[in-house]
Design brief:
By secondary structure, this protein is an alpha/beta fold. The chain has 24 helices and 32 strands. It has four domains: 182 residues, Rossmann fold (3-Layer(aba) Sandwich); 79 residues, 6-phosphogluconate dehydrogenase C-terminal fold; 219 residues, Alpha-beta prism (UDP-n-acetylglucosamine1-carboxyvinyl-transferase, Chain), CATH 3.65.10.10; 209 residues, UDP-n-acetylglucosamine1-carboxyvinyl-transferase, Chain. The structure holds ligand SPQ.
Length: 747
């Protein structure tokens, strides 16, 4: 709803309120206190309520005759149980003016819509159906609370016939209460409410009734623990109101109930058979969904979704880094541990898993496809593999958030399944190119539809036999390579991918770790179908891409000395170390070892004066995600740094060349973007970044890069829109401030 449309000086001369319950009284109280209602007349079946409302000044007058109350009204609020709305309309229909606007507040909209058509006429355009998602265990006039709707969703369900004037007035009258208006269709409202509110109430009533009738009821109620209390609290809601709701929304409630009954029956079987894996499946899926919901609620999701909250970083100038610490697990390896663990036979134990939003999106997708996954808990995940052919059709589209890796790798896997799948993502992912995976997959026989220009959402048709492919990658991309290798596990014949330059090889390494044969011959990688993956243990090393921010930070901040523990130093990922060393950085690799097929080391980094260089193009794919932080290093260097051959940076979560150059220029750096890279003139040992406000363009790596720039700034740097840091680096601010970067969060 566009708040700029709100009339600041809304004034309704005559308001009528029919039904003096909590909701109606709270609404008129808010209107009155905001000075928007001239006079308010009230009607209720209960004389006491009318007298009380008059006494406390909620209404100016009342009448025992409902028609007196509505005769001069400009706005009528009907706040009665939903099955009573029809009666009210019958009684007032002949007393309405030609301009009066009406609304209601009930939990079911379909039946009220029918009443309006039947009694006021199909074309009556001044009734706006509404439902505030708010309430309290209190009721009546004395409980009226003008703040009851603040930050709560108010659902309006305008119909084709509803006139704009009526919708605007009702919207304004709700927004004045601090409620957040959302529009929905009548049908959708009733479906959603049947599932989220009506069904839980029905179950609570039913459970308490069953237990109360049981011959052991005394014991049950004597020993009722928290679970019983939590689950059944809503069974003490008003029986009349709920009777009306179940009658009013019968069809939708029955649909939800049938679905639940079938699932409950299945769960009964699972318990009867002591099927522990299936139990864990149901319980872990439910727990994940509930935990997610709790987080949303904690952020007052009645108004805001998780990502709609704006998070800015304020980084104060100066500081030096010290300490020995570990950054979170590798994102690329975390994704693959879930994917291959799910396709394996047996149970895979993962430690060091990155609990960032991207890898969690992958994890949730596999849960949606029937894989039982326990955790994550402190980086531990247990994946109960279902084998190469055990995935099930997900109930809905797979939502992959911000994660390109999830969508591209899953494309290969989904193309080979028996079922249809749709994959969607957030605004940034919806702009990223997917033809790079869809085109070669189509050559293998996959049927894939996408939005314009090959962007997400992707719709992949199941049951298509795939043929192996011999494919020369047009760009260096580990995601495309991995996508085709995963499809190749199911394709007839051999699938060979040839890369123009080496890219991260975690898929190849991990497939081998799961015992699946992969042939690597220089730039050529080949898989054949018919093998199987056997569950294994995976220890995910710390992510070199996350470590990169601290490598650059400790290098540019004078007198710094840090050690980053257990960092993955896979040769296909260490471009950032090679480039920084070429620029003069002091990075030592200590205690080199191999963990689960991946090389790791502790990295000691001490401050150093950098010099500008021409970045060797062969290092570009090996450092592709680290360029935002390398740009910060280049700005602090003596001389010019030139990057070429990095056009891929333009199609990441943002156009990372543009985003970095724009921000650097704001901070006073002489930086210029080119088609495939950038030219950055460093300010050298005596220079510094200016303070200022830069935009992360909602890209995690841009946000973290500008934060570390503050170490060499002469004033604070404000980095806008940093919520996405959670996609790859949960806990970044805490870790950064713990080792000497003076950053705080502003919400
Ligand atoms: O998953 P996503 O959003 O594509 O993440 C990024 C990143 O910066 O975190 C890229 F924007 O990493 C990619 C990386 O750039 C992860 C990845 C992988 O795990 O296979 C490969 C690289 O992408 P690409 O396009 O070069 O294959």
């Amino acid at each position: 709803m566009n708040s700029s449309r709100i009339k600041k000086n809304l004034h309704i001369p005559n308001v009528a309120i029919i039904g003096l319950g909590l909701i109606g009284c709270s609404w008129v109280k808010a209107l009155k206190l905001a000075g928007c209602a001239g006079s308010i007349s009230g009607f209720d079946r209960n004389l006491d309520s009318m007298q009380q409302a008059l006494q406390v000044g909620l209404i100016e007058d009342y009448s025992l005759d409902i028609t007196d109350v509505v005769r001069d009204a400009d706005f009528i609020i009907i706040s009665v149980p939903i099955l009573a709305v029809g009666d009210v309309l019958e009684q007032i229909k002949d007393s309405l003016t030609d301009t009066v606007i009406l609304t209601d507040v009930g939990s079911v909209k379909g039946n009220v819509s029918k009443d309006v058509s039947k009694i006021l006429g199909e074309k009556f355009d001044r009734f706006v159906l509404g439902h505030p998602i708010a309430g309290s265990e209190l009721s009546g006039v004395s409980a009226a609370d003008e703040n009851l709707f603040k930050h709560h969703k108010i659902i309006l369900t305008p119909e084709q016939r509803t006139c704009e004037r009526a919708l605007d007035l009702v919207t304004d009258a709700w927004e004045l209460t601090g409620g957040v208006v959302e529009l929905m269709s009548v049908q959708h409202h009733d479906e959603v409410l049947a599932a989220t509110s009506h069904l839980p109430h029905l179950l609570a009533y039913s459970l308490v009734d069953t237990l109360a009738n049981s011959h052991e009821n005394k014991d049950i109620f004597n020993y009722a623990a928290g679970g019983f209390r939590d689950f059944t609290r809503i069974a003490s809601s008003s029986p009349i109101m709920w009777r009306d709701i179940f009658v009013g929304n019968k069809d939708e409630v029955l649909k939800a109930l049938d679905l639940f009954t079938a699932d409950l029956q299945q769960l009964r079987e699972v318990v009867a058979n002591e099927d522990k894996t299936q139990m864990m499946g149901t319980f872990t899926r439910a727990k994940a969904a509930r935990d997610h919901f709790t987080k949303i609620l904690a952020r007052r999701a009645y108004v805001e979704s998780m990502t709609s909250q704006t998070v800015n970083y304020i980084a104060k100038p100066g500081g030096k880094l010290s300490g020995e610490f570990r950054v979170p697990g590798d994102k690329s390896i975390s994704h693959r541990s879930i994917m291959l663990g799910s396709l394996a036979e047996g149970t895979t134990e993962v430690t060091g898993f990155l609990e960032g939003e991207d890898s969690l999106a992958t994890l949730q997708s596999f849960r949606d496809m029937g894989v039982v996954i326990e955790g994550p808990h402190r980086g531990r995940v247990t994946v109960h593999g279902v084998g190469l052919h055990g995935l099930k059709m997900p109930p809905n589209a797979l939502y992959l958030g911000n994660s390109g890796t999830s969508m591209r790798l899953l494309s290969g896997l989904m193309a080979a399944q028996k079922f249809d799948v749709e994959m969607t993502g957030d605004e940034s992912l919806s702009k990223r190119p997917m033809s790079r995976v869809a085109d070669p997959l189509r050559k293998m026989g996959a049927v894939i539809e996408s939005a314009d220009n090959g962007r997400p959402p992707l719709r992949i048709k199941g049951g298509q036999p795939l043929k192996g492919i011999h494919y020369e990658l047009p760009m260096a991309s580990a995601q495309v390579k991995s996508c085709l290798l995963l499809a190749g596990l199911y394709a007839e014949g051999e699938t060979t991918v040839i890369e123009p330059a080496p890219t991260r090889d975690h898929t190849e390494r991990m497939l081998k770790g799961f015992g699946y044969p992969v042939e690597v011959d220089g730039p050529k990688v080949t898989v054949r179908p018919g093998g199987k993956l056997t569950a294994t243990k995976i220890d995910v090393p710390s992510d070199i891409s996350s470590a990169a921010f601290f490598m650059v930070a400790a290098t540019i901040a004078k007198d710094s000395d840090i050690t980053l523990q257990h960092v993955g130093i896979n040769p296909t990922r260490i471009g950032v170390i090679n480039i920084l060393r070429l620029m003069g950085a002091n990075i030592e690799m200590l205690n080199e070892r191999e963990v689960g097929g991946e090389p790791v080391a502790d990295l000691r980094i001490r401050s150093a004066q950098l010099k500008g260089i021409q970045i060797p193009e062969d290092q570009v794919p090996l450092a592709i995600d680290e360029f935002p932080s390398i740009f910060i290093a280049a700005s602090c260097a003596e001389g010019t740094t030139v990057l070429t051959g990095a056009e891929e940076l333009r199609v990441k979560e943002s156009d990372r060349i543009q985003a970095m150059v724009d921000g650097l220029q704001i901070l006073g750096v002489d930086a210029q973007g080119t088609e495939d890279g950038a030219i950055i003139k460093g300010f050298g040992s005596e220079g510094f970044f200016n303070g200022g406000e830069v935009d992360s363009v909602d890209d995690h790596r841009i946000a973290m890069s500008f934060t570390i720039a503050s170490l060499r700034a002469n004033a604070s740097i404000v980095v806008k829109d940093c919520a996405n840091v959670a996609t790859s680096f949960p806990g970044f601010v805490e870790l950064a401030s713990g080792c000497g970067i003076q950053v705080s969060v502003e919400k």
